[in-house]
Design goal:
By secondary structure, the protein is of the alpha/beta class. It has two domains: 108 residues, DNA polymerase beta, N-terminal domain-like (DNA polymerase, domain 1), CATH 1.10.150.110; 247 residues, Metal-dependent hydrolases (TIM Barrel). Helices cover 42% and strands 8% of the residues. It contains 15 helices and eight strands. The strands form two sheets. Strands 4-5-6-7-8 form a five-stranded parallel beta sheet, with helices on one face. It has a three-stranded parallel beta sheet with strand order 1-2-3. It starts with a helix and ends with a helix. Bound molecules: zinc ion. Zinc ion binds next to loops.
Length: 370
C-alpha cells in the first residue's frame, strides 16, 4: 500500500490526487475542502467564516459527501453544512470545477473518510493501539478534566494515556509551573489509585508538553521533569522562519529531559508551512538516541505527514501517534495518524503506542538513563 501511495500521490502532491482507496466519486471530501477553501478566499464576512469552518469540518466528516449524494441523503447532516453550502456543493458535483494546484499550505492532509477506508483494510493496525501520549486537560488549555479524558480513553479500550498539559513558557495556553505540575501529579495518582481499586486495567501517565525555545531548551526545572513518566517537547515559537532548522532539532533531541518530540514541523493547515530541516539527519538522531518523533493527528496539523514518515521509516526511528486532544471527543482523531503511519509502512514495532504500559515505561526509563 505504501509504495502505491508514493507512486500515485507524492510525486504529484501539488495536484489533487487521491489515495487509490477512494471510491469513484466526482469529488472527494479532500477536494471539496479545497474548493471550499478557494471559495472562502473570494468571500467576505459571515459567508467567509462559514466557508472556512466547513473547510476544516470536511476533514472530519466520517463519510464521503459524494456517497451521501449517491444515496439521495442530505449533506446537512455533515458538520459545517447548511442549506447554502449544500446547494454550492451539489452544484460542484453536477459540474466539477477545474481543480488548480494545491497551495503548499494545504498539501498532504488526509481526511477522516479517507483514513477510515485505509484503516478498514487493515483493522489489526488500529487494534494494536494502547494509548494516546499527547492531550490537554483543564490544567492548561483543554476543556475536560483529567478524569473526563481518562473516561473517554477507557471507552476507546485504551490501556493508558499521558496527560501532557502545557508548561509555563506557553502563557497563552495556561502553561503549568513546577508547583502546578506537582499538584496535577497528586490528582493523577489519586485517580490511578481509584482505578486500581476498582480493578480497571488503565492508568494515566504523568507527563507534560514542555515548551522548547527556538534553541531547543526547555522551560521547566529538570528535577521536576524527572518525577514524570514521560516528557513531550514541542516548539511553539519562531515557526515561520524559512531557513534550515536542523540545529534546533538536534539540540532539542539531545535535551536529556525529553523522550518524544511533539508536532515536529509546527505546520497548520492553510496558515503555516512549518519548519524545514535536513530530515534524514534529524530522524537519524532520533534513532541514535532511541527517542520518538510524533505524528500529531490534530486534523489541521497532521504532523508528521506521510511524506516525512517515509523518511523517518528509512532512518528507523520510533514513532508516537498522538491526537493532541483538547477535549475528550477529540481522542477519535487518532484515525488520521494511524492511517498516515499505515500508508507510510511504518513497522508496528516502531510505534510506541503499540507497546503495553509496562513496555512503554521501560522504554522511557531506558531513554532517561542514557
Ligand atoms: Zn503543542
Amino acid at each position: 500500500m505504501a509504495d502505491f501511495y508514493v507512486k500515485a500521490i507524492l510525486p504529484r502532491s501539488k495536484r489533487l490526487r487521491e489515495v487509490p482507496e477512494t471510491p469513484k466519486l466526482p469529488l472527494s471530501n479532500g477536494q471539496i475542502a479545497e474548493l471550499l477553501s478557494q471559495e472562502s478566499e473570494a468571500a467576505t464576512g459571515h459567508l467567509q467564516r462559514a466557508l472556512r469552518k466547513a473547510t476544516q469540518a470536511a476533514f472530519l466528516w466520517p463519510v464521503e459527501a459524494g456517497e451521501l449524494l449517491a444515496k439521495k441523503e442530505s449533506l446537512q447532516q455533515l458538520a459545517g453544512i447548511g442549506p447554502h453550502l449544500e446547494r454550492l456543493i451539489r452544484r460542484w458535483f453536477e459540474a466539477p470545477p477545474p481543480l488548480s494546484e494545491l497551495s503548499p499550505l494545504r498539501q498532504n492532509f488526509l481526511t477522516t473518510a479517507q483514513a477510515k477506508r485505509i484503516l478498514a483494510k487493515r483493522p489489526q493496525w488500529a487494534d494494536q493501539y494502547h494509548g494516546d501520549l499527547q492531550m490537554h486537560s483543564n490544567w492548561s488549555d483543554g476543556s475536560g478534566k483529567i478524569k473526563d479524558m481518562a473516561d473517554a480513553a477507557r471507552k476507546r479500550g485504551y490501556e493508558y494515556i499521558a496527560m501532557t498539559d502545557h508548561s509555563q513558557g506557553l502563557k497563552i495556553a495556561g502553561g503549568m509551573d513546577e508547583q502546578e505540575l506537582a499538584e496535577q501529579a497528586e490528582e493523577i495518582e489519586a485517580l490511578n489509585a481509584k482505578l486500581k481499586a476498582s480493578q480497571q486495567h488503565f492508568r494515566v501517565l504523568k507527563s507534560i508538553e514542555m515548551n522548547l525555545s527556538p534553541e531547543g531548551q526547555g522551560d521547566m526545572d529538570p528535577k521536576a521533569l524527572k518525577k514524570l513518566d514521560l516528557v513531550v517537547g514541542s516548539f511553539h515559537s519562531k515557526l515561520r522562519v524559512t531557513g534550515d532548522q536542523t540545529e534546533r532539532y538536534l539540540s532539542a533531541l539531545r535535551n536529556p529531559s525529553i523522550q518524544i518530540l511533539g508536532h515536529p514541523r509546527g505546520r497548520i493547515y492553510n496558515r503555516r508551512l512549518g519548519l524545514t530541516a535536513d530530515w534524514p539527519r534529524v530522524f537519524a538522531e532520533v534513532s541514535r538516541l532511541n527517542k520518538a518523533i510524533e505524528v500529531d493527528s490534530y486534523p489541521d496539523r497532521q504532523d508528521l505527514d506521510v511524506e516525512l514518515l517515509l523518511v523517518a521509516k528509512k532512518e528507523g526511528c520510533r514513532i508516537a501517534i498522538d491526537t493532541d486532544a483538547h477535549a475528550p471527543d477529540q481522542l477519535a482523531w487518532v484515525e488520521l495518524g494511524l492511517a498516515a503511519t499505515l500508508l507510510a509502512g511504518i513497522p508496528a514495532e516502531r510505534v510506541i503506542n503499540f507497546l503495553s504500559a509496562t513496555e512503554l515505561l521501560k522504554w522511557a526509563k531506558s531513554v532517561k538513563s542514557q
